[in-house]
Amino acid sequence: MPITAFLESNAKEYGDEVSLVEINPELIDRDDLSWKEYSLVETAHVQGYRKTVTWREFDERANKTAHLLLEAGVRKGDKVAVLLMNCIEWLPLYFGILKTGATVVPLNYRYTAEEIKYCLDLADASVLLFGPEFVGRMDAVKDRLPKIRAFFFLGENRPAYARDYEADMATRAAEAPGVPLSDEEDAAIYYSSGTTGFPKAILHTHASLVSACVTERAHHGQERGDIFLCIPPLYHTGAKMHWFGSLITGGRAVLLRGTRPKWILDAVSKERVTIVWLLVPWAQDILDAIDCGEADLAGYDLDCWRMMHIGAQPVPPGLIRRWKRVFPSHDYDTNYGLSESAGPGSVHLGLENIHKVGAIGKAGCGWRTRIVNEAGADVARGEVGELAVSGPGVMKCYYKDPAATAAVLKDGWLYTGDMAMEDADGFLFLVDRKKDVIITGGENIYPVQIEDFLRNFEKIKDVAVIGVPDRRLGEISAAIIELKPGLSASREEILRFAEDLPRYKRPRMIVFDKVPRNPTGKIEKPTLRAKYAGGSVVAQETEAPVKIAPVRV
Fold this sequence. Notes:
Elements: H1 4-13, E1 18-23, H2 35-40, E2 50-54, H3 55-71, E3 79-83, H4 90-99, E4 103-106, H5 113-123, E5 125-130, H6 135-141, E6 150-153, E7 163-164, H7 165-170, E8 186-191, E9 201-205, H8 206-220, E10 227-230, H9 237-249, E11 252-256, H10 261-271, E12 275-278, H11 280-291, E13 307-311, H12 317-326, E14 331-338, E15 343-348, E16 362-363, E17 368-372, E18 385-390, E19 397-398, H13 402-408, E20 409-410, E21 413-422, E22 428-433, E23 438-440, E24 443-445, H14 447-454, E25 460-470, E26 474-483, H15 491-497, E27 509-512, H16 525-531, E28 538-541, E29 546-547
Helix pairs in contact: 1-3, 3-4, 5-6, 8-9, 11-12
């Protein structure tokens, strides 16, 4: 069954029910509004603040989009790219592309003009749909995109080289285009995070997308009455595949355009949200706002909220302990996955296993896991090796990159590049990314372990540990520490706190700086390596200040 069948079923069964709500707080929020004043603002009169689409309208918009693209020459096997910020048009457009039999190619809205060109070329995209935020970037590369046959624009001030998507789509037929689709046909190309250079194009079939729907519902027990708050970018598998739990059940989703704590709490309260997926920084920001008195929970009705879950990066156990003290009735789950495995769910903690917070969990619904050494043999429990997963959501391939595909797909197993270990109870713990392991004096240091420890220091908001070159030891560990707002700490305080770590794991350098994270919450360690690699920064080392030598990234 193709993924589009769920949409068509929901349109028939629940046609008049709201499927999507878009909330855009930036249209009313001002810096001079307090938490209480913001929550009392009357928004009904603000045009564009809140938009809704029913399941029938969702399906009809998808059908009209499909007819528009078919009339523009799109056929099975073609690639159609989408470059949009989160908005209520995003998902109907995505499904409209799928209904033509074409492959949809979501693009990261943070890409530079050259990255956009690279990804469009790599995917062999023939059509691009984009929004007003990207006009400048598209102007810079549009004349160097010979494969693009048509540009469609969503928004005001349309550039002359693009067609008006809304106007053209509105006049098309609302009936399904009738293009036959099968499970194993190509459906979507998602791009990797690109942490080791330009991103890879990850090809998924309809079957792997459908498997994500099944996995999500199995893990989190979605019912039609659940309302899911979707905050992360829709171009990423994480947000999309968690929303698939709403798609398979016919449940409502709220697309929140922004991540401020007061916006999240207000959306939960007013929209009666039951499930929220957060990234680590957003959960930290909510708790910090509550701790400092900025957020007054008494001003919100949050009894509807039944579950919070986190994925996309290692989850500090201390963060979840804090969360449960503030929200003791919440269920909690950790989700692990990759874009190569149809997003989150190949491993998950499970709602019943909160006592194991810190672990990523066990194999998800329909999945299997292994931890292997360099030779591909299973390691013993308690030993560190590379995590490999096998299941229905594994990608078809890296598009047009057979060498890269062969390097990670071996005998039906996807080698994740994540170093992990299994405890005596069968729970998996992430140790670090394979490429991030620091080797100091012959000892392997796993930065995640140090980061998790340092985050327990009450003044630290976030931390990233990277390796920097050292003439004697090869590498030493440097901790980039972001303090909580309004607080200060000395290098000596951090080092005293770290004395409970084994000596070889203690950071040898302390740098106070902001910890950069990408839109999916992952620490941008290549950015930090580049920032502290050229000899332009003097870091504080535990023995004596040293100038950081160049680091190969």
